[in-house]
Design goal:
- This protein has helices spanning 11-24, 37-47, 63-73, 87-96, 107-123, 128-140, 193-197, 245-252; strands at residues 2-7, 28-34, 51-55, 78-83, 100-102, 151-156, 159-164, 168-174, 177-182, 185-189, 205-209, 212-215, 219-224, 230-234, 240-243.
- It is α/β, with parallel strands linked by helices.
- The radius of gyration is 19 Å and the shape is elongated.
Amino acid sequence: MTTAIIAEDEALLRQALSDLLARVWPDLEVLAECEDGASALEAISEQKPDVAFLDIRMPGLNGLEVAAATAEASPGTQVVFTTAYDQYAIDAFERGAVDYLLKPINEERLTATMQRLQTRAASRVTDAAALSQLLREMVLNPGPRAEPLTWITASNGRETRLIMVDDVAYFRADNKYTVAMTAEGEALLRTPIRELAAVLDPNVFKQIHRSTIVNLRAVASVVRDDTGKGTLRLKQRPETLVVSQPFMTLFRNM
């Protein structure tokens, strides 16, 4: 049986793709449905699916970054990007001969994609070079982005603090909230880390674990152990941070 994961941050679109796959590809087993790139990468690394359906624009790690890490975490996984209308992205996909699905996804297009995936799986042919080239192009030319977050308000007891984002060493998920760690200590944000990831500068803040986002400017060094995990030492904080194995690829290639 063929296995897959679905990564889509919009719940309705995620369910729609799952339902459509059930009709078009009934012997496909969906191992996980993920709402962000970090959980998708962890699912791919742990479960090694045959196919990964990746939304391009997700909070934190986007679909392109997840695909880049998948090449190391699960080389046998075929990637299918899902995207809203973006002519630049579509042109790049066509040149790279990489599978993509245009939202809203229709049954005919999904059927054609399924057939191509099955043909490749049967012949054990993958186009890693085309995918690699595509990812380089898209990372170098990501298209317009919204202005990243520059400051936040956070609670510290009864006090509400104004904190510049550049002063945060890392963010850590804490149930429904997020803890911001600075050189002076910690403060609580009433925002889930998933929502925060969507508005941070992706060139400065990198997800190193599903529950941790680090400020690269606050990192003093990184050490990789024999298991593939990494440890970050910070410039102005005494604790170290663990980088999950599948996230090390992203960290190493920055």
